[in-house]
Write a structure and sequence with these properties.
The structure is a homodimer of 137-residue chains.
Chain A (H helix, E strand, L loop, with lengths): L8 H20 L6 H12 L5 H8 L3 H13 L3 E5 L5 E5 L1 H24 L2 H15 L2
Antiparallel strand pairs in A: 1-2
Helix pairs in contact in A: 1-5, 2-5
Chain A binds a DNA duplex (30 and 30 nucleotides) through helix 4.
DNA sequence: CTCCTATTGTTATATTACATAATAATATAT
DNA sequence: ATATATTATTATGTAATATAACAATAGGAG
């Protein structure tokens, strides 16, 4: 009963990612937020007034899938939408949104710290650079 | 328009994983196989006679979700199921399955090589060990 | 051997993530 | 001024993954 793919980088990458995403989801659950919600809140805070389209490009979420995410966050009172022109909106955090975004960032910090702590020290500094090389382009 | 999470290891991990999984899916599409199909074929070849349950434990797929995967691969003529006892089956590759498994392994090899090639040399050797530290437990 | 418990494969079902196509309104460029 | 592109949106489909329930059966305890 051996794992024939255990040393394949792509396989290890997806297993590690799946496991860490699961962990993060557990940690966000008490806030009643999903990962996409959390990233959107943080990105809006860092980019006040951003449009759904531009936001979607940053976080790799298609416009069509953005709609329900944004409208749910609006209904929860975390973000506001103000018309920029006839077709696009400026997204901003409300006060309530800023508050929960603080909680989110705390959870993210904890999550990232625990994640990095699992990686043996000699590999740690190589981790993010290697991932960014795969991801960005 | 900046990505506030770009340097978060968990975020980078999931972005990198998503991108590479997408690539792999494209490469497997010509064989009309999905990633789960490919991993199952390779794992059965490495573990002849394994049961669906044991296989599911290796690849982190729940029994319930294994059913349709296995039965589809059987219908495609790639694997065979032989009763071990009254409730479990031994899974094996058919000749056709062994053939396509060869193609799969070729694609995986190519995929993994291209993936590693994207990672700057100085980080390469640290990549899989770091991921395994996150994933395994 | 018999009874209780655990395991296996299975069905049904729900959720989440993510993809495409079409559309109406509007901005932008020629 | 008109053609084209972009934005937000709706509708829809698929893949991955999770849980609960169930029948058949294996394995262990007495």
């Amino acid at each position: 009963m051996k794992d024939a793919l255990a040393n394949f980088p792509g396989y290890a990458l997806s297993r590690a990612s799946a496991k860490m995403l699961g962990r993060l989801a557990e940690r966000l659950a008490p806030l009643n937020l999903r990962r996409a919600d959390a990233t959107i809140l943080v990105q809006i805070e860092a980019n006040p007034g951003i449009t759904p389209s531009a936001l979607g490009q940053i976080v790799a979420i298609k416009r069509a899938n953005m709609v329900s995410l944004v409208s749910r966050l609006e209904k929860s009172g975390y973000i506001s939408r103000n018309a920029l022109d006839g077709r696009s909106f400026a997204l901003n955090l409300t006060e309530k949104g800023t508050n929960i975004c603080g909680d989110v960032k705390e959870i993210l910090k904890l999550h990232e710290d625990r994640l990095m702590a699992r990686i043996p020290e000699e590999h740690r500094d190589h981790f993010v650079p290697a991932l960014k090389a795969l991801w960005s382009e």
